[in-house]
Structures are given as C-alpha cells and as structure tokens.
Design brief:
Distance between the termini: 31 Å
Strand content: 15-25%
Number of helices: 9
Shape: globular
Strand order of the largest sheet: 3-2-1-4-5-6-7
Helix content: 40-55%
Bound molecules: NADP nicotinamide-adenine-dinucleotide phosphate
Length: about 250
C-alpha cells in the first residue's frame, strides 16, 4: 500500500496518466492530477478518486514550460511538504516522415516529452535528495527503444527519456531514490486512436501476445515501480508491450 505517499502524475487527465492516477489512489496515495488543457477531465479524475474514498487534486501546468513547472512544484511542496512518487507521463505525438517534419513539430514533441520530464525532475530534485527516498517513473516508449518510421521526433524524445532516466538513477542512487522508465508498446488511448486504421492494424500485427495493451496494463507496472516491491530496481527500462520489443 502507498498510504501517506504523495504522488504527482503529469498528464493525468486521460489515457495512461488517468489510469495511473486512479491506480495509485486506489492503493492509498494522495494523488496530484496534473493536466495542461483538459481541466474538466482532470476534475472528473479527481471526483472518481474521491468517490472511491481516495484523495486527489487537479493542478494545471504545461510541463514543457520551465518556469511554470517550477511554480507548480513550489505550490505542491508548500501544501504537501514532499512528493514521494513522480510519474512523468505527459506526452504528445506529431508524426510525419522526417522529410516533411516541421521544426515546430520537432520542437513541440521534444519540449513536452523530454524537456517536460527534465523540468519536473529538476525542480523536485532538491526535495527528493533532502528526503533521501522517492520513486521517479518516466514514460518512454517502444519507439524510443526500437525507433519507428514517421516518429523521428517522438522516438528521439523517448530515447532521450531513457538516457535521462539512467543518468538521474546514477546521480540519485546514493540517496535511496529509484528512477526507472517504462516503455509501453501499443496501448489503446486517444493517442493511438488518432492513428490511421492501417497504421493501427500494422502495429497490432507486431504484438506477440496478440492484443493491444490497455492503460491498466501500464498502470500496474507503474504501481509496482512506485511501491516497496521495487526498492532494489533503478535505472531500468521495463517494456510493457505484449512482447513487441523482444
Ligand atoms: P494521451 O491519451 O494523448 O494523453 C496525454 C496526456 O498528457 C493528457 O492528459 C494531456 O493533458 C497530457 N499532456 C500533454 N501535453 C502536456 C503538457 N505540455 N503538460 C502537461 N500535460 C500534458 O496519451 P497516452 O496514450 O495516455 O500516453 C501517455 C504517455 O505514455 C505519453 O508519454 C506517451 O508518449 C506514452 N506512451 C503511450 C503509448 C500508447 O500506445 N498510447 C505507447 C508508448 C508510450 P491535456 O489533455 O490536459 O493536455
């Protein structure tokens, strides 16, 4: 159980982040539900947690913004005194072949997925180091491990998340803070439903377990990495992809 733990989940208004927030809360954590634009949906997540007897709060912040994320962290620390579990889940795609990829689409994906993860860890690092405990879980992707045609920006950002994870894991290890990445494969969310049916079917055929993943498949792994059972695991990239990256 995560009773008494404060968890901050970025991009928790929908998809994987929403499921992670619900799962951590169901296991006793007090959850801060970060969102960027989807205020109502984030508030629905909070209501769902409260209806189940848990505690949560929705907090708006664009994680790609260094100053705004610093401000969010300041406010959270002022109110809750600590963050025990940080889940860097906020992420976007702007797919295109590299020949047609605009500078704006490259920058936007890097800014949210990689810099957003840096911003959150950077601003919470002092607090984590002071408390000498904590769990940081970063969302990478099978695309960051294998690469994917049409996703040069996204794959680069998710490979970057792996390098960031391993470096911070080394920096924080002596303080008892575990930093790991999870690499989902094809998970049914709004992110993947935006893909063409052809692209979706092509990806599904690459899954040895024969089905697309659910947000709950990822949330169960995040729960494990947030809890005591994973205290001796750090700097790892754990796939949750039905065997896609075997
Ligand atoms: P999703 O359904 O599109 O949800 C994305 C979430 O991120 C939303 O809650 C969104 O909030 C939030 N977000 C986006 N930009 C943000 C920003 N700048 N600041 C704060 N929040 C922001 O995506 P998903 O499929 O659940 O994916 C979640 C994570 O898993 C991502 O990092 C993604 O790359 C990774 N992943 C997903 C898959 C998959 O198959 N679905 C596979 C591998 C990895 P607002 O709506 O409020 O903007």
């Amino acid at each position: 159980m995560l009773t008494g733990k404060i968890a901050l989940v970025t991009g928790a208004s929908r998809g994987i982040g929403r499921e992670v927030a619900l799962t951590l809360a169901a296991n006793g954590a007090i959850v801060i539900v970060n969102y960027n634009g989807s205020k109502e949906r984030a508030e629905e997540v909070v209501k769902e947690i409260e209806a189940a007897g848990g505690s949560a709060e929705a907090v708006q912040c664009n994680v790609a913004d260094f100053q705004a994320s610093e401000e969010m962290v300041k406010n959270i620390l002022a109110k809750y005194k600590k963050v025990d579990i940080l889940v860097n889940n906020a992420g976007i795609t702007k797919d295109n072949l590299i020949m047609r990829m605009s500078e704006e689409d490259y920058d936007a994906v890097m800014d949210t997925n990689l810099k957003g993860t840096f911003n959150m860890i950077r601003h919470l690092s002092r607090s984590f180091i002071k408390q000498r405990s904590g769990k940081i879980i970063n969302l990478s992707s099978v695309s960051g491990v294998l690469g994917n045609a049409g996703q040069a920006n996204y794959s680069a950002s998710k490979a970057g998340v792996i390098g960031l994870t391993k470096s911070v894991a080394r920096e924080f290890a002596s303080r008892g803070i575990c930093v790991n990445a999870v690499a989902p494969g094809f998970i049914e969310t709004e992110m993947t439903s935006a893909m063409s049916e052809e692209a979706q079917n092509g990806l599904k055929q690459m899954i040895p377990l024969g089905r697309a993943g659910k947000a709950s498949d990822v949330a169960e792994l995040v729960l494990f990495l947030a809890g005591k059972g994973s205290d001796y695991i750090t700097g790892q990239v754990i796939s949750v992809d039905g065997g896609m990256a075997i």
